[in-house]
Amino acid sequence: MKSIVSTASNFMHKNKLWLLLAIIAVLVILPFFGLSSYLIRVLCMIATYSILALSLNLITGFMGQTSMGHAALYCIGAYAGALFSTRLGTNFWISLIAAIVVGALAGAFEGFVTMNLSGSYMTVTTLAFAQVVTMVAQNWTSLTNGPLGIKSIPRPTFFGIELTTNNGGLYWLVLAFLILTVLFVTAIINSKMGRAVIAIKEDELAAKLMGIETKRYRIAVVAIAGALAGVAGCYYAHMSRYVDPKVFSFDISMTILTIVIFGGLASIPGSILGAIIMVAFPEALQFLSEYRFLVYGFILVIMMRFRPQGVLGGLSKQPYKLPAGVKSKAREAAAQAKEA
Amino acid sequence: MIAQQLVYGVILGMVYALLAVGYSLVFGILRLLNMSHGSVYAFGAHMALMAVTLTWGLPAAFIFTIVATGVLNVVINNVVLAPLRARNAPNITLLISVTGVSYIIQNGLMLTFGSTRMPFPKIFDYGNITIGGVTITSTQLSILIVTLLLFAILFLITNCTKMGLAMRCSSQNPKAANLVGIDVRKVVTFTFFLSGMSAAVAGYMIAGYYEMVYFTMGTAAGLKAFAAAVLGGIGVLYGSVAGGVIVGIAEAMATTFLGSNYAEASAYVILFLVLLLKPSGLFGKDNLEKV
Question: Is the pLDDT at A234 greater than 90, yes or no?
Fold first, then answer.
């Protein structure tokens, strides 16, 4: 059994690119199979939550700072996009850029406030930040229309074609966002910044001593996470065509965190798998929907007890990929031993 | 008018202080922010409601509430947290676990008692006292007396008993405490019971004060109490009391001058400012550890 698993994992690792392309191809042609618009909508929500989870994974998984207020950045992105589209009448793409910029600014602010904090203090401050954001959204009536929310947000258009769930346009749009997000997050993690961020997770003091400007990176990472949450928020606002402060409650923050933890900290496929399970589960088991948050609670407790690194998290079994031009003596010796 | 609001603020603050003490007790020993504390408080209020509807009379209802909530807290510690501590899990793992526990308790309450707001009979209703234009109801006065009494008990336990000495030792250095023969596990269990007890009293008081009980009542109260605990210097008991009163007064003042919508946010604003300016809090010892 174990050898089958390891063979499969080796096969997947060797043909990673082809497998990914095959999965993407299947996902792209999915709407042609005549799925109901309800099912398409569920898929869209899965992709939205995947983007949110990837964005939170940057903060929590890679940088090791647990945020229990990620809905704040999601909320700010959604409101920014919705307000630009309804008040200023800009088209979706300009609203999207606005949402990204506003989300990044809000993230930078959150990062600035929390840059000296760690552990529980970081967690509670992000939680309080989210509470303040929803409070502002509820009470700044002249801008946000208060608890009534913003209605009839125009649908996104693409060269004059209105994108809906019926023609699959919204699905392809969010799929494109998700693929771009995955590429973007992968690029960040494999860059100098990514290594610095992982160093912060391992030991912030040691990272500082190595000459990494930890505060600057902490602000930057939360700002990037804010920009990604802005994309998700803007997309959500234009898909559901309605936002109100209640949509971005503490429960949403916890759902995103549960996805990240369940899927696996610092695991990109984990975030997507987590989103699929956490979003599809309440939809598939409607009769259990009352128990939804009860189940989330048990997932958090049980995962922390038995597999804190998540389903797909943990150390990779594959050999560490050395940068070009660097040779490992141990690996060369192993290769020679194999030949001999 | 302002004096009247001040009274409201102090009464509210005393209850926040009770909850904040619960955070402080656990934080002092485990360095753990007990996110489930708000839900435990809601659980206490529901237990009180159950005892009251069964017409057990005040003393029996009170004792039942305290014991049930204390036991719940001990169960949380022994079932969820103790195995994690035995594995030397990082602090954040414990934090996420108690958040999960908080969800389980809250939704368990919703499934058993329903999701509507339930009426709760007023406690200690013997009329009003008016001093210099300021009206104090007997309920408010009794809340003040009961909380002060409880603080006195907690103070006596931590400062004048052998268990209290063991608690203070364990909070300074659990390993060293273990070496000199203190059963730290027992101390932690006892601390959780005390913390649950104070949450139960707070739950009973608030349920009787606002005359209602609902399953999400712990979320906001728990956060505000945490803000109070941080403000006073988490881990310092008298700091928590001061922090609670300040948060309560700030909320009452915000209600008067800014409107009730913004009052909800006042505690969070305080929390932000404290963490930015003086993370160790008003009475906390500096450089204990990095926040």
Answer: yes
Q: For residue A193, which amino acid is it?
A: M
Give the pLDDT of residue B291: 43
Nearest-angstrom CA–CA distance, B209 and B223: 19
Structure tokens at A140: 């700044």
For residue A81, the model assigns a pLDDT of 92
Chain B residues with CB-CB distance to A206 below 8 A: none
What 8-state DSSP symbol labels residue B278?
Answer: -
Alpha-helical (H) ranges within chain A are 2-14, 16-29, 37-57, 70-87, 92-114, 119-139, 141-144, 169-189, 192-202, 204-209, 214-240, 250-263, 268-284, 292-306, 329-339
Q: What is the DSSP string of A212-235?
A: --HHHHHHHHHHHHHHHHHHHHHH
Pair (A19, A84) in one structural domain: no
Residue type, A255: T
Low-confidence ranges of chain B (pLDDT < 70): 285-291
Please list every residue in chain B whose beta carbon sits closer than 8 Å to the beta carbon of residue A68: 99
The strand pairing partners of A243, in sequence order, are A150
A113 has a chain B CB within 8 A of its CB: yes
* A138 to chain B: closest CA residue: B261
Which pLDDT value is given to residue B35?
86
Token pair listed for B224? 């505000």
Residues A60 and A13 in one domain: no
pLDDT at A250: 84
Task: Check if the beta carbon of residue B35 is closer than 8 Å to that of residue B92.
Answer: no
* Same domain? A238 vs A96: yes
Same domain, A273 and A181: yes
Interface residues from chain B to A (CB-CB < 8 Å): 32-33, 80, 83-84, 89, 91-97, 99-104, 106-108, 110-111, 219, 223, 226-227, 230, 261-262, 264-265, 268-269, 271-272, 275-276, 279, 290-291
Residue A30 shares a structural domain with residue A71: no
CATH code of residue A70: 1.10.3470
Q: What is the mean pLDDT of chain A?
A: 85
Is there a single domain that holds both residue A214 and residue A261? yes
**B2 phi/psi in degrees, rounded to 5:** -70, -40
Do both A6 and A109 map to the same domain? no
- A300/B95 touch (CB, cutoff 8 Å), yes or no: no
Question: Is residue A163 within 8 Å of residue A155, measured between CB atoms?
Answer: yes
> How far apart, in whole angstroms, are the C-alpha atoms of residue A169 and residue B270?
46
Note the pLDDT tens digit of each residue in A263-275: 888 888 889 998 9
Which residues does chain A have within 8 Å of residue B95's beta carbon, measured at their own beta carbons? 66, 119-120, 123
Pair (A1, A84) in one structural domain: no
Interface test with A, best of B81, B97, B231 (most A CBs within 10 A): B97
- pLDDT at residue B290 in the model: 47
Measure CB to CB from residue B268 to each of A128, A261, A299 and give the nearest one. Answer: A128
Asked if A293 lies within 8 A of B107 by C-beta distance, the reply is: yes
Q: Which domain holds residue A17?
A: 1-34
Q: How many domains does chain A have?
A: 2
Q: What local confidence, expressed as pLDDT, does residue A163 receive?
A: 78
| Interface touch B262/A68, C-beta < 8 Å | no
Which whole-number Å values give the CA distances from A83 to A131, A151, A237, in the listed order?
Answer: 20, 10, 10
Q: Is B1 helix (H, G, I), strand (E, B) or coil?
A: coil
Q: Please give the model's pTM, rounded to 2 decimal places.
A: 0.83
> Two tokens at A278?
């956490």
